[in-house]
Amino acid sequence: PLSPSGAQTTQLLVQPPWTPAVLWDRVTLTCQGSGTPNATTWYKGGRRWGLEGPKHFTVTEIGTYRCDRPGTGISPPVTVVNERLVLQVPARVLLEGDTVTLRCRS
Predict the structure, then answer these.
(1) How far apart (Å, rounded) are the C-alpha atoms in residues 6 and 3?
(2) Which of 43, 84, 101, 102 is most buried, judged by most C-beta within 10 A?
(3) What residues does each domain of the chain span?
(4) Model-level pTM?
């Protein structure tokens, strides 16, 4: 994705691609951006997290995650919850007029 200035930005992709992400879905986060994939820095709860290097991992704890790639900056946050009942929407940019599928899960 491009920022308004035309530069590529870092994105945090969620698999399965639904938001909010729920822990019991075995969520995988992938940091996407230019630069060296093994130079990814991960953040959890606003703090630099012990996990460094891999561009993706399977989440094992609830929290708010971000990643940073040299040259493209820090990603928008992704929150992983462990709620018993969730209403989910696709984890992609939605525009006015789009048809949206909602998932109610427990």
Answers:
(1) 5
(2) 43
(3) 11-105
(4) 0.82
92 has a pLDDT exceeding 90: no
HSE-up of residue 25 (Cα within 13 Å, Cβ side): 23
pLDDT tens digits for 2-61?
444 445 688 899 999 999 999 999 999 999 887 666 788 899 998 998 766 778 889 999
Specify the CATH architecture of the domain 11-105: Sandwich (2.60)
Task: Give the separation between CA 87 and CA 92, rounded to whole angstroms.
Answer: 15
Residue in 1, 9, 24 with CA at minimum distance from that of residue 85: 24
DSSP code at position 9: -
Cα(91)–Cα(83) distance, integer angstroms: 17
Pairing label, strands 21-22, 78-81: parallel
Predicted confidence (pLDDT) per residue in 44-90, tens digit? 998 998 766 778 889 999 999 999 888 788 999 999 999 999 999 99
